């Protein structure tokens, strides 16, 4: 299943395409990440969160636990991606930030956002070390 979700608040449908792809709806109420490898979700209020399946059906999700930050570590278990791939993800992350509307550009980031960036940067450095050995 594709990793898609819909925000009930703003109606935005978002999709995460790979592990490091962190996407949020227009109003920042909900977010998803993990691509097709892991289905991570975040929301200010999960009553605004709907899964969208491959047929376009909207599914109500059952929230088990809010352990999003702890689970972030499992997004980067080891270096499964080569350096070029990781750099591509970093560029994509940057492009997405640049495309944000001006008011979103000046809104604060969360520790989860910051942790995911650090993990990606760390993965890039580790992949570099691997190459040089
Ligand atoms: Zn929204």
**Topology pattern, helix = H, strand = E:** EEEEEEEHHHH
* Mean of pLDDT: 81
Total number of β-strand segments?
A: 7
The small molecules bound here are:
zinc ion
Helix content: 25-40%
Structural class: alpha+beta
Major sheet strand order: 2-1-6-7
Poorly predicted runs: 67-74
How would you characterize the overall build of this protein?
- With 133 residues, the protein is α+β, with helices and mostly antiparallel strands.
- The chain has four helices and seven strands.
- It has a four-stranded antiparallel β-sheet, with no helix packed on it.
- Helix 1 packs parallel to helix 4 and helix 2 runs antiparallel to helix 4.
- The longest helix is centred in the C-terminal third of the chain and has 22 residues.
- The relative contact order is 0.15.
- The structure holds zinc ion (ZN).
- The site of zinc ion has 9 residues, from loops.
List keywords for this structure.
133 residues; alpha+beta; 4-stranded antiparallel β-sheet; 3-stranded antiparallel β-sheet; 4 helices; binds zinc ion
In short:
The chain is an alpha+beta fold and 133 residues long. The chain has helices at 68-75, 83-98, 102-105, 111-132, and strands spanning 3-7, 13-16, 23-24, 30-33, 40-43, 49-52, 58-60. Strand 1 (3-7) and strand 2 (13-16) form a beta hairpin.
């Amino acid at each position: 299943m594709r990793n898609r979700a819909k925000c009930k608040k703003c109606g935005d449908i978002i999709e995460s395409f790979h592990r490091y792809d962190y996407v949020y709806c227009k109003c920042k109420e909900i977010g998803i990440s993990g691509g097709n490898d892991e289905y991570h979700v975040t929301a200010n209020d999960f009553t605004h969160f709907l899964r969208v399946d491959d047929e376009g059906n909207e599914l109500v999700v059952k929230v088990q636990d809010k352990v999003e930050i702890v689970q972030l570590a499992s997004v980067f278990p080891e270096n499964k991606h080569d350096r070029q791939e990781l750099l591509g993800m970093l560029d994509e992350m940057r492009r997405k930030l640049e495309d944000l509307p001006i008011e979103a550009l000046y809104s604060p980031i969360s520790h989860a956002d910051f942790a995911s960036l650090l993990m990606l940067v760390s993965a890039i450095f580790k992949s570099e070390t691997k190459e040089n050995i």
